[in-house]
TrEMBL record:
SUPFAM superfamilies: P-loop containing nucleoside triphosphate hydrolases (SSF52540). It is a multi-pass membrane protein. Its main location: membrane. This is ABC transporter domain-containing protein. InterPro entries: AAA+_ATPase, ABC2_TM, ABC_transporter-like_ATP-bd, ABCG_dom, ABCG_PDR_1, ABCG_PDR_2, P-loop_NTPase, PDR_assoc. Residues 173-445, 850-1103 form the ABC transporter domain. Belongs to the ABC transporter superfamily. ABCG family. PDR (TC 3.A.1.205) subfamily. GO terms for cellular component: plasma membrane. It holds the Pfam family ABC_tran.
Length: 1450
């Protein structure tokens, strides 16, 4: 730290300070506590310290204003002291605090989160109030707010099949949209209310009632596709008058983050982009007034306020503060991770989503279901912090929660209760119970009011709360509640307030933000550049892999075309031309991975763009500039390796010129693919568009078809292709060199003749025109990329589709439907009876005991943690876990977020793919065997992973088909499926598509219930449920827990991790295993009646506070055992448990249950899977077929691609197939076939990558569950492609064959069809194979590039078979493209006996083909056989690797 004043300066101020000292000594002593509380030392010591501190304050006071705002007294730590004592205060620049200093400062300020955070905010408020400065506040009003969505009506099931989508597109093109029926569905209906500063409001309601829509509308983030009417204002200003996204904060329920960034980096970046708001202005005003009043501030508060008021810092103290209060400091240096990358837990991710937004200057907060996946203790802690924020800083806070515990509910000031898009109640929390009592409903004792409120408006649950026994209960619909509220005292008061306009003069000048961005353009650019550079470092593996690929390909190319085998003559000039063309192809294709890398980050970009973190240009420009060194490196690697080995013109100038062209081409290629990705947005669509772009560039590049041979009306394509300018630049640079100036015929040199034959006879100055054109194209693509990011909307829900049947049903029951889901989908669950069904089906199973003893689990310490000084090579996540799960007992597995609950379940169920597990796990007394265990267990994962393109019913049917024993007949299985759907209350929406989380399909709670149904239908003996109630409202959670209780009653073993149980849900459990941070047990045993056993155990521990009456035992238990409570009591609950009699009893029980009972036998099944291979294949093929039929973005796109591509080929090569007069005509036809094979193949391979990659996560879940064998899945995946590939081949032949003018012989038509079909099979199966051997689609794309370039080079077009050296000929023989090209070309022209002109002599076409290319007509039989063998080999490798390799990191 830089000290700003020395002893000499201090001495010079002593005289001036004498007067100040007398006036402020008393005030200072009372207001300046140091970091460490001052011990009972001598008063003389205190006086000395005070004197020194006052001298330092005087130094600060004399500084210029711009320095004073960043200068504070900071306690210097004595690093040499064992206890880390303070050495005293020093003057520091708070903008230059180091990471360790920030950490120590926050640790000193906040030890006990709840108390110390409140104390800090109060001290901050007291300082501001003392000088009469006010915080800016925001009052949000909304009146007559209505939101509607447009829906399209269809007959039958509203599913997006290929047929439906094609019809929709065709009708659109034909302007027949009038034939479509459209209707509007209301989401919000006449909503009105006032959100006041300094108050925290809870938004309650069942899923689908419009909560998210209301939050989005109030925060100004509602989609423009929705129709909005009514008024929304902030401090009397309508949303159009200011920037609502910067004046308020919306926190989504979806956790969208860049997986490669750490938690700290994510929050730091957000803090930097959101800026400091009015903090600096407030700070300046406070400092000015304090100076006038002669007030000395608390140095800690002063340092904190100044540190968070500095703009544009890479790392801020506010980040450390947010990490601390959200409990994220323990994982601050761990990467966020995703489905395929190990990262932070689900609860931590949810807290990160909150932290990312509240780190900024918060005045109005709209938080959407932020507690999903958090335990009740953590939720309470976060809500307490939000309450402090609202009450002390006068923030306006509206929070939507699904299952708030009673103590969390009590933190709120106001309640908004919604149902069916209407506001049922908006008023004080304290009076809501009375409102419903006046309506005839009363909340029972030990029932959470939040749960009561959500159930009292439900048709099925309302009756149980009716308390007017003298009257018969009849269902009171939502509209009656709304009417009753409007007539109530609060409803009338609200109407009066809304009718009075807000007095704008009372609005603080800094309350609303009128500028979109918080930082200057330069600061925005710097912030985005630093993040882009960080991303490049984290993805360095991909760039290294690309460079290795380039070295390999360059090595092959230069050893095929060695200078010792090349001459300076007419024939070899063609080979030099081919080598130059190949270099261009390689460097263009090298940019393809940019597609995947860009699309993978678009979701986060759109989120941050809409929050006005930064403009699109600040994201786009660094993405372009930071790739320049990569382009330089790639171009240099290629040029340096190949230039002199192949034997181009030896002048250094020409070497540098070639390098420059290749560099600019690579830059243009990267820019082009980024632009394509920004336009098409999704991985599959971008891949298809990228393939079209490459095909267009190469076809019009002047090599495959010379420019003079192109139709005149298409020659404009030649001038817009980047490859054209690369070709002109490289060929003029090489063939206008002195060594090619030998005269051959007439007055023409070899170089000129070669250029003329290719239509590239340009002057030397065209080299510099090409340089300029490539720079211009790169610039143009980057401008396009920036504009696309600026103006295009993010990919999301298209217009909702609803069936006529459902529409008429809704019209008829508009006021009756309970839980009408308009917010997420236009579907609603037909609710079944809450109680268990009479005579429910119980399929036969074997009750089993699971015991585990001394289980330990370790993982490698993350690199980021090691960088920060953690020395251990292994992190222990589970420590000495011992226990038992018994049949007929419902066990809860609980602990704070990050305690290791999911880790323990993964270890016990055998789902961990990494780390080291120690200890003993037994099933029924026998050691656990994973393959057998998978048959008798079910696992409901926290992440709801399902195939997106099949319906709820189909998902459950698929699970039942393959996981129930084969002895059960199909009818029983189907009945069981229906029963499960009814039990989990999914029968009303069973025809809905699952969809992609956060984008389409089911809502979070529907997805969660589907996860449970899929496992429940397998009839397991042991069921693990990882947070089955996370993301559900109280009613849905009750349904799920009733289902779990019903399962237990049948004698099964059920284990649930659970975060926020209500009293009812918590006491439905029989036993509890409680864990603490670090993966240690602190309780394992029975709950007892009303949790009596649990309460008795903890209340016996000295210092643990007694539980209050009617308090939730689950919440109390988590509160009294939290880390801060442990620190306060000075105890270790893990050690207390290990020394207890309960621990000894549990050990004894585990020993007893671990022994084999007489007459028992180990689990054994005659087969590994429930169904035989044929049934597995049938089921997998059935599911894949449905998925493919409902995937228009994948299948319709590739069919469209081959149709348009074939049409382009037909136009470019119009009737050239029948006019064969010289060798160039044959070269053109070979070029047509070569290009078709390469590009249709590459497109198919590229588009299958993201599709199979996404499906692989579902495969991992289903394979872990023992659903089917890997070969059944892979064979189904391979077979389902066949009809689509055959259709593509037929389209190619039908379109190109007559247009190009090939022979109409049936034999030749068959060969053309067969060759294309086998080619597409090879490429599709190759894409699947590469996904099976790589961890993600990005790496697979790079390997694809290697494969494509090899197949391109050895196809027989760039270098004929006869010219390939013997040491590389084996590559020719293993490339499917060479066999396909040979088969298609030889079958078409191998028997052509017409005499043609060849290099100045006359030969038959068939003889020339055999002499030049090495293609023989009598070899076609072998070619045909090899063409079908290659895809079979690739398919077999895919089957093997998809079964053997697992890249999921758990």
């Amino acid at each position: 730290m830089a000290q700003l004043a020395g002893p000499d300066e201090i001495e010079s101020f002593r005289i001036e300070l004498a007067e100040i000292e007398r006036n402020i000594r008393t005030s200072f002593r009372s207001q300046v506590p140091s970091f460490h509380s001052v011990s009972n030392g001598s008063s003389e010591h205190i006086r000395d310290a005070d004197d020194e501190d006052m001298l330092q304050w005087a130094t600060v006071e004399r500084l210029p204003t711009f320095e004073r705002i960043t200068t504070a007294l900071f306690e210097e730590q004595d690093c040499t002291a064992a206890n880390g004592d303070a050495k005293g205060k020093t003057i520091v620049n708070v903008s230059k605090l180091g990471a360790q200093e920030r950490h120590v400062f926050i640790e000193k300020l906040i030890k006990h989160i709840e108390n110390d955070n409140l104390r800090l905010l109060r001290r901050l408020k007291q300082r501001i109030d003392k000088v009469g400065v006010k915080f800016p506040t925001v009052e949000v009003r909304y009146r007559n707010l209505c939101v509607e969505a447009e829906c399209e009506l269809v007959h039958g099931k509203p599913l997006p099949t290929l047929w439906n989508t094609a019809k929709s597109l065709l009708s659109g093109f034909a302007s027949l949209s009038c034939s479509k029926r459209r209707t509007k569905a209301g989401i919000l209906k006449d909503a009105g209310g006032i959100l006041k500063p300094g108050r925290m409001t809870l938004l309650l309601g069942p899923p689908g009632c419009g909560k998210t829509t209301l939050l989005l509308a109030l925060s100004g983030k509602l989609s423009h596709a929705l129709e909005v009417s009514g008024e929304i204002s902030y401090n009397g200003h309508s949303l159009e008058e200011f920037v609502p996204q910067k004046s308020s904060v919306y926190i989504s329920q979806h956790d969208l983050h860049i997986p490669e960034m750490t938690v700290r980096e994510t929050i730091d970046f957000s803090a930097r982009c959101q800026g400091i708001g009015s903090r600096a202005d407030i700070m300046m005003e406070v400092i000015r007034r304090e100076k006038q009043a002669g007030i000395l501030p608390d140095p800690d508060v002063d340092a904190y306020m100044k540190a968070i008021s500095v703009e544009g810092l890479k790392s801020t103290l506010q980040t450390d503060y947010i990490l601390k209060i959200l409990g994220l400091d323990i994982c601050s240096d761990i990467m966020v991770g995703d489905a395929m990358r190990r990262g932070i837990s689900g609860g931590q991710k949810k807290r990160l989503t909150t932290g990312e937004m509240i780190v900024g200057p918060v005045k109005a907060l709209f938080m959407d279901e932020i507690s999903n996946g958090l335990d009740s203790s953590t939720t309470f802690q976060i809500m307490s912090c939000m309450q402090h924020l609202a009450h002390i800083t006068d923030a306006t806070v509206l929070i939507s929660l699904l299952q708030p515990a009673p103590e969390t509910f009590d933190l709120f000031d106001d309640i908004i209760l919604m149902a069916e898009g209407k506001i049922v109640y908006h008023g004080p929390r304290s009076t809501i119970s009375k409102f419903f009592e006046d309506c005839g409903f009363r909340c029972p004792e030990r029932k959470g009011i939040a749960d009561f409120l959500q159930e009292v408006i439900s048709r099925k649950d309302q009756g149980q709360y009716w308390h007017r026994t003298e009257q018969l209960h009849s269902y009171i619909p939502v509209d009656q509640f709304v009417k009753k509220f409007k007539e109530s005292q609060f409803g009338e008061k609200l109407d009066k307030e809304l009718s009075r306009p807000f007095d704008k003069s009372k609005s603080h000048k800094n309350a609303l933000t009128f500028s979109k961005y918080s930082l200057t353009k330069w600061e925005l650019f710097k912030a985005c550049s630093m993040r882009e550079f960080l991303m490049m470092k984290r993805n360095s593996f991909i760039y290294v892999l690309k460079s290795i690929q380039l070295v390999i390909v360059a090595s092959i190319c230069m050893t095929v075309l060695l200078r010792t085998r090349m001459g300076v003559d007419e024939i070899h000039a063609n080979y030099y031309m081919g080598a130059l063309f190949y270099a261009l192809v390689i460097l263009v294709v090298d940019g393809v991975p940019e597609l995947q890398m860009t699309t993978s980050r678009l979701a986060v970009f759109y989120k941050q763009r809409e929050l006005y973190f930064y403009p699109a240009w600040a994201y786009a420009i660094p993405a372009a500039i930071l790739k320049v060194p990569l382009s330089l490196m790639e171009a240099f690697v290629w040029t340096a390796l190949t230039y002199y080995v192949i034997g181009y013109s030896p002048e250094l100038e020409r070497f540098l010129r070639q390098f420059l062209i290749l560099f600019l081409l690579h830059l243009a290629s990267l820019s082009m693919f980024r632009f394509v990705a920004s336009i098409f947005q999704t991985a599959v669509a971008s891949m298809t568009a990228g393939s079209i772009a490459i095909m267009g560039c190469l076809l019009f590049g002047g090599f495959v078809i010379p420019k003079p041979s192109m139709p005149a009306w298409l020659q404009w394509g030649f001038w817009i292709s980047p490859i054209t300018y690369g070709e002109i630049g490289l060929t003029t640079n090489e063939f206008l060199a002195p060594r090619w100036e030998k005269i051959v015929s007439g007055n023409t040199t070899i170089g000129q003749q070669t250029l003329e034959s290719r239509g590239l006879n340009f002057h030397g100055y065209f080299y510099w025109i090409s340089v300029g054109a490539l720079m211009g194209l790169a610039l143009l693509f980057n401008i396009g990329f920036t504009l696309a990011l600026t103006f295009l909307k993010p990919p999301g829900n298209s217009r909702a589709i609803i069936s006529y049947e459902r529409y008429y049903q809704l019209q008829g029951r508009k006021d009756d439907v309970d839980g009408f889901d308009e917010d997420k989908k236009l579907h609603s669950a037909n609710e079944s009876s809450p109680g268990p069904k009479k005579g429910r089906m119980v399929l036969p199973f074997e009750p089993l005991v699971m015991t585990f003893k001394d289980v330990q689990y370790y993982v490698d310490t993350p690199l980021e943690m090691r960088k920060r000084g953690v020395l251990q090579k292994k992190l222990q996540l589970l420590s000495d876990i011992t226990g038992a799960f018994r049949p007929g007992i419902l066990t809860a597995l609980m602990g704070v977020s990050g305690a290791g609950k999911t880790t323990l379940m993964d270890v016990l169920s055998g789902r961990k793919t990494g780390g080291t597990t120690e200890g003993e796990i037994r099933i029924g007394g026998y050691p656990k065997v994973q393959d057998t265990f998978a048959r008798i267990s079910g696992y409901c994962e926290q992440a709801d992973i399902h195939s997106p393109q099949i319906t709820i019913e189909e998902s459950v049917v698929f699970s039942a088909w393959l996981r129930l024993p084969s002895v059960i007949d199909p009818k029983t299985k189907f009945d069981f499926v229906n029963e499960v759907l009814e039990t989990i209350e999914l029968d009303g929406i069973k025809d809905s598509l699952v969809g992609i989380p956060g984008i389409s399909g089911l809502s979070t709670e529907q997805r969660k219930r589907l996860t449970i149904a899929v496992e429940l239908v397998s009839n397991p003996s042991i069921i693990f449920m990882d947070e089955p109630t996370s993301g559900l409202d109280a009613r849905a959670a009750a349904i799920v827990m009733r289902a779990a209780k019903n399962i237990v009653e049948t004698g099964r073993t059920v284990i649930c991790t659970i975060h926020q149980p209500s009293i009812d849900i918590f006491e439905a459990f029989d036993e509890l295993i409680l864990m603490k941070t670090g993966g240690r047990l602190i309780y394992s045993g029975q709950l007892g009646q009303r949790s009596s056993a649990l309460i008795e155990y903890f209340e016996k521990i000295p210092g643990v506070p007694k539980i209050k009456d009617n308090y939730n035992p689950a919440t109390w238990m988590l509160e009294v055992t939290s880390q801060s409570a442990e620190a306060e009591l000075g105890v270790d609950f893990g050690q207390i448990y290990e020394g207890s009699t309960l621990y000894k009893e549990n050990r004894k029980l585990v020993e007893q249950l671990s022994s084999k009972t007489p007459g028992s036998k180990d689990l054994h099944f005659p087969t590994q899977f429930s169904q035989n291979g044929w049934e597995q294949l049938k089921a997998c093929l059935w599911k894949q077929n449905l998925s493919y039929w409902r995937s228009p973005p994948y299948n319709l796109l590739r069919i469209s691609f081959i149709s348009s591509g074939a049409l382009l080929f037909g136009v470019l090569f119009w009737q050239q197939g029948k006019n064969i007069n010289n060798q160039q005509d044959l070269f053109s036809m070979l070029g047509a076939m070569y290009t078709a094979i390469m590009f249709f193949g590459i497109n198919n391979c590229s588009t299958v990558l993201p599709y199979v990659s996404a499906d692989r996560t579902v495969l991992y879940r289903e394979r872990f569950a023992g659903t089917y064998s890997a070969w059944a899945y892979s064979l189904a995946q391979l077979l389902v492609e066949v009809p689509y590939l055959f259709a593509q081949s037929v389209i190619y032949v039908i379109v190109t064959y007559p247009m190009i003018g090939y022979s109409l012989s049936a034999y030749k038509i068959f060969w053309s069809l067969y060759g294309m079909f086998c080619t597409l099979l090879c490429f599709n199966y190759l894409g699947m194979l590469l996904i099976s051997v790589t961890p993600n689609a990005q790496v697979a794309i790079i390997l694809c590039s290697i494969a494509f370039t090899t197949m391109n080079f050895f196809a027989g077009f760039i270098v004929p078979k006869k010219r390939i050296p013997m040491w590389w000929i084996w590559l020719y023989y293993i490339c499917p493209t060479s066999w396909a090209l040979e088969g298609m070309f030889t079958s078409q022209y191998g028997d052509l006996d017409k005499e043609i002109s060849v290099f100045g002599e006359t030969k038959t076409a068939s003889a020339f083909i055999e002499d030049y290319f090495g293609y023989r007509q009598d070899f076609l039989g072998v070619v045909g056989l090899v063409l079908i063998i290659i895809p079979i080999v690739i398919a077999s490798l895919f089957t093997y690797f998809i079964g053997k390799l697992n890249f999921q990191r758990r």
